[in-house]
Predict the 3D structure of the following.
Amino acid sequence: MKAYPDCFPCFLRASLTAARLVGASEETEWAILREVAPLVARRAPGRPPIEVSPELQRVVRRILGVPDPFAEAKRRANQEALALLPRLREEAARAPDPLAFILALAASGNAADLGFQEDFDIEEISSAGEPWGRFDYEPFRAQLAKAANILILADNAGEIAFDRLLAEELAGLGKRVTVAVRGAPTLNDATIEDAREVGLPEVAEVITTGSDHPGVLLGKCSQDFRRRFQDADLVISKGMGNFEGLSEEPGPIFFLLKAKCRPVAQELGVREGELVLKAGGG
């Protein structure tokens, strides 16, 4: 998926969010915008948004002098989401279809995105109950039935606690589950530290993409990750960033996300704000 003009203000918003999370001055915010805005205008047209983002975030970190402006916000989101898991497990167990319930929860969790907005409420996200704009559940169940090795491509911190429930459910079905997180801090995307904070290694193998892109661009990922991706019988791709990078890739991919902006909703054929489980494969 290539960048739309609508992506321009999102790049700027994410840069300002990083500055405000560390209490930067207005003067510093302007310094960031003076470098980031022309960079976006030059680099974004014709490219996936996630291809441009790392360069912008490096500018932001350099000006702020902070290695990860989102670190504290990520820790807080992980702790808040982790505290909800006992209740959510009970709700899933009572649901007529626990797997469908957990898929909806994992998709709703995709709203925990500080690249898209300045703040969010994890408890509200876990209870929102947004409608499905597209729910390719039967094709998903068919692929799941014959899959032995499942790769979940995680997206944001906080959200990754809900991905743990998905990993638990799939492991309970006898599947070998691997979860891939970002290889280095970028926005509020989940890294190895976030996976450990929510206990993911207790239920799945955790690896990284080997990249600081906020989404999977296979050409930018490590050789080990590319091998894992190719060997997976089922890939569950979480979030808009992973969709941007993989929307044209072949393979047994299902995109699981919330369509939070007009361009992504348009690409997916749904309304803004709707949940999506969509069969991919190029």
